[in-house]
Amino acid sequence: MSANEDQEMELEALRSIYEGDESFRELSPVSFQYRIGENGDPKAFLIEISWTETYPQTPPIISMNAFFNNTISSAVKQSILAKLQEAVELNLGTAMTYTLFEYAKDNKEQFMENHHPVNSATSISNIISVETPSIAPSSKKKDKKEQLSKAQKRKLADKTDHKGELPRGWNWVDVVKHLSKTGSKDDD
């Protein structure tokens, strides 16, 4: 199958999968945006994937240059793009746009764990784009990060509030118990 036939099939699949999904946007037949997170979510971000002429045999261009991402620091953007690049290398030669969007959705919390909103009047230097060289060395072994099971993620989510922070006082010492042990002996 030629690259164009692969692209046409993937385009049809993307259109049917994301039909009615407000987060998905087709900019052109070879360029797509997907918003990871809900509107108003401070940790939401936008990924843009553009296909090259020889995609999927060559990597797509992944970008986070959208104005929507202006509050995200360049370090966090670079980190997200690097993790997406790893997924690209694993899926090279296959239709991967859907896979990349889903990978980003599944790992949103991990991607944005170091996110602290920056002033929206950021400079042009925060505009970042990644193009993978056509020959990527894959001989290096990659360190695997610890993956949490669904039960572990659920337990962690139950301990935290909607912002991912532990509730106030989660590590306070039981003051009454402490004072009863260290109370003064002057009462005698």
UniProtKB/TrEMBL annotation:
It holds the Pfam family RWD. InterPro entries: RWD_dom (IPR006575), RWDD4 (IPR042770), UBQ-conjugating_enzyme/RWD (IPR016135). PANTHER family: RWD DOMAIN-CONTAINING PROTEIN 4. It comes from Octodon degus (Degu). This is RWD domain-containing protein 4 isoform X2. CDD domains: RWD-RWDD4. It comes from the Eukaryota. PROSITE patterns: RWD. Residues 135-167 are annotated as: Disordered. SMART domains: RWD (SM00591). Residues 9-111 form the RWD domain. Residues 155-166 have a biased composition (Basic and acidic residues).
